[in-house]
Write a sequence for this structure.
């Protein structure tokens, strides 16, 4: 039996109906009203990679009668894109006089001039066009642009919700699977549902004996194993009574990781374990360094600075304790 219809699972099972979108019930209630009204406001969808921002943007255009333009701003991020493609699209009359919707995916890659130009378009064509921006880092969107849009934070669904969705996809494909493999995938790539589905597809093989699909014993690449394990190693080091900054620095250096967003989240989630009673202070430290990471050249130095300040708080705990 072949995988149904072939194609990428992440695209095949990208929900086209709001009720099939995983998590974010509060945002879904707002989107449902827009669909009922067949109109929407200008919006920014922000959140971590793989949490469903692009899916939600595309879902809106499928459920509101409109002409839409999709632009990946990580590839086309200059002012020429706004002046030529976007301006030309919104300034022409839509078929049947329907609304025009522009999706600027990964809009945090847009240059300052491109964002400034977009701001004027939003005002000029407010009667006929709507804009949906998606971004991982809301700090990179200029304030005048954010003020013209409603900002929605798209939160990752829970691991339980992701597991249910993954099991449903596997059921639809007729793929047998091992619970341990699915747990490993979710723990390794959560909250990035896209990564989880892509790795499931890469780990699926054809069983010539019974003609069914099944997942082979999961074998992550060396890079994926490092990515999923170095965070745990850092947390284990922090949980020591007297953690050593040089040890943690070596763990991070050996990982060859360039994006520490996942580590910042783990540091926040487990703050009460390695530094009990200091969640508020630790949260401020993490938030400051997470923000700074959007602008610094050497992100490794920035994350080490964050951990150094966390260790100071841990040391204070030991002294006062």
């Amino acid at each position: 039996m072949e995988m149904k219809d072939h194609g990428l699972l992440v695209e095949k099972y990208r929900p086209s109906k709001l009720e099939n979108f995983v998590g974010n019930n509060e945002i879904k209630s707002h989107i449902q009203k827009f669909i009922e009204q067949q109109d929407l406001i200008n919006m920014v969808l922000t959140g971590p990679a793989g949490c469903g921002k692009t899916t939600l943007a595309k879902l809106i255009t499928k459920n509101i009668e409109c002409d839409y333009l999709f632009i990946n701003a990580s590839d086309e991020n200059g002012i020429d894109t706004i002046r030529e493609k976007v301006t030309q699209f919104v300034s022409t009359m839509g078929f049947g006089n329907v609304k025009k919707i522009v999706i600027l995916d990964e809009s945090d890659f847009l240059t300052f001039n491109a964002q400034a130009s977009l701001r004027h378009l939003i005002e000029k064509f407010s009667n006929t066009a709507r804009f949906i921006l998606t971004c991982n880092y809301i700090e990179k969107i200029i304030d005048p642009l954010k003020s013209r849009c409603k900002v929605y934070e798209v939160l990752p669904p829970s691991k339980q919700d992701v597991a249910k969705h993954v099991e449903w996809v596997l059921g639809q494909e007729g793929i047998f699977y091992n619970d341990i493999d699915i747990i490993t995938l979710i723990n390794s790539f959560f909250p990035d549902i896209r990564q989880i589905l892509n790795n499931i597809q890469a780990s699926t093989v054809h069983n010539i004996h019974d003609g069914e699909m099944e997942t082979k014993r999961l074998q992550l690449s060396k890079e994926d194993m490092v990515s999923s394990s170095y965070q745990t190693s850092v947390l284990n080091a922090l949980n020591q009574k007297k953690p050593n900054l040089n040890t943690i620095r070596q763990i991070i250096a050996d990982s060859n990781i360039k994006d520490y967003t996942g580590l910042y989240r783990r540091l926040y989630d487990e703050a009460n374990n390695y530094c009990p009673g200091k969640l508020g202070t630790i949260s401020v430290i993490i938030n400051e360094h997470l923000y700074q990471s959007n602008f610094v050249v050497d992100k490794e130095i920035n994350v080490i600075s964050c951990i150094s300040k966390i260790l100071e708080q841990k040391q204070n705990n030991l002294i006062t304790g």
Summary: The radius of gyration is 22 Å. The mean pLDDT is 84.
